[in-house]
Amino acid sequence: MGKDIINNYLKIKETSHQRLKDAGYFDRIKIQVGSATCENASGAQDVYTEFEKMVKASGRSDILLHMTGCTGHCSSEPIVGVFIPGDIPVKYGHVTPQKAFEIFTSHVQGNGGPVVDMILDKKTDRLYNHEFVFCGQGTKCGDKSDKVAQAFKEKIKQLGMEETIKVASGVCFGVCNDMNNTSATACYVFPERVFYGNITEADLDEIIEQHIKNNTIVKRLVVKLDRVNNHFFEHYGDVEYFNHQLRLTLKNCGVIDPESIEEYIHFGGFEALANSLQNDSPQAIIDKIRISGLRGRGGGGYPTATKWANTRNAKGDRKFIICNADEGDPGAFMDRSMLEGDPFSVIEGMIIGGYSISSERGFIYIRAEYPLAIERLENAIKLARENGFLGENILGSGYSFDIELRLGAGAFVCGEETALIHSIEGMRGMPRPRPPYPSQKGLWGYPTMINNVETLANVPVILLNGPEWFASVGTEGSKGTKVFALAGKINQTGLVEVPMGTTLRDIIFKNGGGIKDGKKFKAVQTGGPSGGCLPESYLDTIVDYDSLNKAGSIMGSGGMIVLSEDDCMVDIAKFFLEFTQNESCGKCTPCREGTKRMLEILEKITAGLGTMEDLDKLERLGSVIRKASLCGLGQTAPNPVLSTLRHFRDEYETHVKDKKCPAGRCKKLLKYEIIAEKCVGCTACARRCPVQCISGSPKQVHVIDQSRCIKCGMCFEACKFDAVKFN
Amino acid sequence: MSDTYTITPEIEAFIEECKGKEFSKSYLIAVLHKIQAKYGFLPNNLMEEVAIRMEIPTSKVYGVATFYHMFTLVPEGKHIVNICLGTACYVKGAEQVLNSLKNSLKIDLNQTTEDGLFTLKATRCIGTCGLAPVVMVDEKVYSNVTPDDVPVIIAKYKNK
Amino acid sequence: MTENTKMVTLIIDGKKVEVPHGTSIMNAAELLGIKVPRLCYHPKLSVEGACRVCIVEVKGARNFIASCATPVAEGMEVTTTSPEIRQARRDIVELILDNHPKDCQTCERDGNCELQRLAYAMGVRNRYFEGEKKNYEKDLSGAAVVRDPNKCILCQRCVRVCEEVQGVTCLSQAHRGFKTVVMPAFDLPFAESVCTGCGQCINVCPTAAFLEKDSTKQVWKALADPELTVIAQFAPSVRAAIGEGFGLPPGRNMQGEVITALKLVGCDIVFDTTFGADLTIVEEANEFVQRLTKGGTLPMITSCSAAWMKYVEQFHPTILDHISTCKSPMSMVSAMTKSFYAQKQNIDPAKIFNLAVMCCTAKKYEAARPEMCDEHGRPYTDTVITTREFVWMLKSLGIDLPNLEKSEPDPVLGFATGAADIFGATGGVMEAALRTAYEIVTGETLIDINFNAVRGMKGIKEANVNVSGTEVKVAVAHGLGNARQLMRQVEDGTSPYHFIEIMGCPGGCIGGGGQPYAGTNVMPLDQNMLEARARALYNIDEHKVLRKSHENPYVQRLYKEFLGKPLSEVSHKYLHTHYKQHFPVGI
Fold first, then answer.
1. Residue from A211, A234, A229 nearest A88 by CA
2. CB contact B48 to C (< 8 Å)
3. pTM
4. From the list C53, C132, C177, which residue is nearest A582 (CB)?
5. Do the annotations mark residue B18 as ligand-binding?
6. Of A430, A635, C144, C315, which alpha carbon lies 20 to 30 A from A533's?
7. Model ipTM?
8. Please, which pLDDT band fits residue A3 given cuts at 50, 70 and 90?
9. What is A473-567's CATH number?
């Protein structure tokens, strides 16, 4: 039966390709609208409906309205892409139904060309003629790529072509091994979509002469870029937000229709599965994962291959695999985006994982708060079954496997393995002591392997590109990429996938575009409620499991909240503790009682009632909770407090000793006052004050009665003359 | 009173389907989700009914129902106004939006307006941090909400 | 060698120790004389690992490890005594105390409280982390057990015993985090819940979160009332355990001292529940023989355990016709005092106050059941107090039980055969019933009267008894969880037995929910303790001349003077009842 598997796969691929072709997927003009929870929240559905109406009204059959998941570029949503065959792909941001009309009539109908001022990243008033995206600084090539790019930029500047030629640095293309000259780099050119490999400074003049001036491709430099994420790069590589990323697990997000298995197959979907079933023994797959160096992306960073091998070797009549999609960290939405944008990758990763441990049944445990992700997963499972990738005798291999969705019901602690197992079993999601580990005794007592969404999405990537290649991306101890959810006081919020080893500074200032409103950076919080806050002096820390641990935070599942000078670190610590305290399951003493006491102390401090002894108590409680709690939730719960105490102790002391909140966030420490010289007596503040504690006749200076003030800040907002101040 | 809440044929069919499956008791949470979706809360008599039908001790059913945030034990308003108090929303001013919601609806968190139209709840992150702060009314998500937006949003649902 | 017998060598506090694979660090340390401080751990229950008091350091582990929940591993290096561990344990115990009422002196478990002992041992002398405390209503609704959530430290022993040992699962944790509370479904009052009143939650609770309903006030009042004739009786198991309440080792028979004490307290008459046990056996054995020979419903199942009766009514209502219609020994004695004895002594039954000292909390519930009341709706048994309550009463009067002289019960309803004394241990009722039933059926004298197969602490025991050529198959279960297994068969119609004895509590009545709290170094439900108590009862039996209930001359006289014959109409009026489905229906 050996050869049949690949043949069966190719047959499916062929019919799938035919279906796409019949639908005009390859030759029609594509209007692409993102549709995910976040896109919909910013109005993508209305935009989609608008386009739908217009396409219908236009009577044109050569236009395909294409729905995708989201690209993760949240701050520019809704994003609409217009792909006219042969043209440079154009992406619009912040599209409204009105703007959709403009895009349709001007760009799609061809009356006026692209609507330039709405194009993402567009800083000039016309489109560039060419865009050169150079390989960014990888971990292996140092700054040589940057040198070539800089030289090229310089030349373009000298020639006065800055307005028409864009030169950008992207992320590492990971092609270092293909190059024979150690000072060479690579670059991708739009709209021709050619890839020049092996270029040194000596080649630049030729590129300018031939490519830019004569519009002919320098054939001798062209190399075939053959990576899993080609298609993402081709769609979005010209957008700065994306070309600083290395999209491996998010490669399909924003490209494929998450409800179309045909499109997933078209971009290499299920090929890794077919290859594995055909050529690899379960053990061989585990070996490949081991070579890749993949570590769990849920936060712990446990070596994935070890987990798989442990479950494979455990004694048990049956085994289960669970995909942990209980993304509970406030401020993290990597898994949601992945499942909404590309549910098939996770499913494929699960089937391969299931095969490698000889499991016949898998579960995806997903938050019930993610209805769209659930819907898309259900659909994807159904389609995978219909196409023979799930169910009995997958692709004729003799291996059978199926997946069932299980919904959470709102409990952060269910992200913990043993709590998650209890929740799937229909019980209270409370953790239990380990050992036995789930790989020995898990769901209903059988050996069970639990992997995070992102971990599983990496599996097909590794198998398609080879584990050695995967291991070449990242750092010594942390391989591959990591997806982060950037949020907070940052210009470009959204998902970024970067190679392990990227510095926090690059993520925040390159990918994220720096701090909002020109404010000063204060701290970055990684790892959600289990993580810590790192100050400016740690910005050059690289993201990998060990470096972040050393700095006093954790990688976590990928939440990254950026805080500015307007944020109070004591208040942030209190926020996170409030979260964990509320989410504590109540089973073990240190977490149940200890987090409550810590929170009470923080409340005291932020209300101006703290003492220096309280800071010691926080440390003492933090230590016992961290070292003695039953599960990961408790063991990491004190981190936000301990890390801020470590890096921002002066801020705590200001709260305690001076009874002041430097950022002005701790309300009870605020004092609102009206500056007599500035007050014109307009009465606006007095009218807005909810407790009527501002007195003063019209055109007279107003006064706040401090004893009654509830520090709500309404007067501050109401005053148009900057006459209300607070400290 | 308790007669108002019954196991509907759909829920009954679902329970029967679950009972036919392997590890049938593990579907308790799924069954409770169905009841919550149907009635907006979990009536005691139905929890007891589920306990008997699924052969799970009633105290355990109650223990599960009270463990998870998404299950509620008292009826809720027609529209659920959820304010996200996740990290991103918090640092972007969700608290002020919450105060505005409280003022507009004249209720506190986890309360229902007298006319039974709105229940105000706080939710954990709904994963749209890029658009913070967000407010969710039923299934609809409102992004970048300011305190002044609140009355406008609420007004949309007054007559629905 | 199988994996289970593989030996593992590890180092604890610098000392090498070899233990079987699978042993916990806690148990391994005990071999070296180190009793790691602990709280939620209970050897008879599943491992919870929740309180974190028993943490130790294991070399190479990032965090402290719960020694109760962690199995040993080859080469493991454990430290149980480092300054960090000591500090962490003290902090943990303090955290528990900080959310616990500060009313030790007025608490019913003062001096008997595991948390109190632990706080002392850990050296908690100051409070550093005080803050909000839980504040819930007490539930005093139950006839047998009351609940005070404020004293609860969430060790979950009660939840585990209620589910794992008793199979009742009345209790579960509800809500979560700091707000977690142990409660019946829907936070129902105990009186409306499926609680059987067995009181095992009281036995295993380290604090006073569960207690029996206090009935001592009524007793004091009755004793002070000159109008009332207070007639006391006490259960077989009371004599085997009450000494522990006065610091004696388990297994001392205190029958004589108890009688003296009851008299000292002011009871007018002291009978013995063992008389009722003999009476029960005569009725029950006859009922069994009738069912066996006349084609009645089989297997017949015993009915003398009060918690068991509520359990079966709730959980197995379809098999109630299997249940013997006999009342319990306590209820039989009470019914006889207010009828036969009252008539005989010419006392107005309304002026009799029946006091029962029981090993059991559920008897408080039984006494109040309408089935156990007379035709005027007055309960035959006026008040039930537990062994523990009786100990308090004696202590409050300065009565030092171990140093009292022995007295004999009033024989009219106090004399008992050895068959009655063994009622208190699991298997005892079956053994006693077989001694009598055998002789009824065969008409021959039973020579070897010891039915060893039904003795002992095994959860479910069975035996085949040849009764003149007929194999009579019997089974005995103690602990409601074990009972459930046998009842499933009865419900399915697959039960192979003719006669089943069920006792609600582990070990039978000797392990009842009203027995003295375990001493400092003993765990509740401790097998050695239960066996010692049982041995005391079997000893009494062995040293008696009359060891078959039907040979009890006072029972015979009672039939002659009042009841007529077993299962007679009079018998049915006073000694039998019928059980019916009980709401709430439990699951």
1. A234
2. yes
3. 0.92
4. C177
5. no
6. A430
7. 0.93
8. low
9. 3.10.20.600
